Amino acid sequence: GDSYAKLLKKLNVETVGQLLRHYPFRYEDYTKKSAIAHLILGETVTVKGVAENIDNIYTRNKKTFTKAKLRDESGTVDIVWFNQPYLAKSLKKDLSLSISGKVDQFSGKLAFISPEYEIIKSSDNPRTIHTGRLVPIYPETARISSKWIRSRVNHVLLLLDEIDDPLPTFIKQENNLLSLNKALRAIHFPDKYSEIHPARQRLGFDEIFEI
Length: 211
Known about the structure:
This protein is of the alpha+beta class. It contains 7 helices and 8 strands. The strands form 2 sheets. A 5-stranded mixed beta barrel has the order 2-3-4-6-5. Strands 1-8 form a two-stranded antiparallel ribbon.
């Protein structure tokens, strides 16, 4: 829509191609996974389970927090978000959720406070983009968060097979460069840290080559 187009323009993104070239500047490492019963205070992990008892709670000083309980086969853990009352409507009971963040304490118990979350829509294809992996963090602007950008980039990556690679094969071979498709996929959603450097090499080569 027009409003988001204006916001994206502040990030120099006006086309689908420019969105693909809006690269992450760092990654959050949410690759470590844990059963709820094995959580350790202070560690950054991902847990998956089923949501229970999602409620908005209003304190005496008129502050609001949303509290949910996540259950897996090993136990339960509390999830707390502050000043996001809409979550009580979007995160319904019995939804399968993936939660990533630092294990903290709330009311004397282990809990996740304002973690990244993601609804797992299919157990047959549980691929996630906001949790449970190396999660890209992008340059942002007002109302355009990294989570918003990730969701759109994820859709655009479905078009990668339609993008022509401008570099001749012999140049890629001589310089040990990835294909453009592989580089773009790896820079946005790498499966491991070792995929990031080759992607940056290829995309950096393109920028110099175009000049």
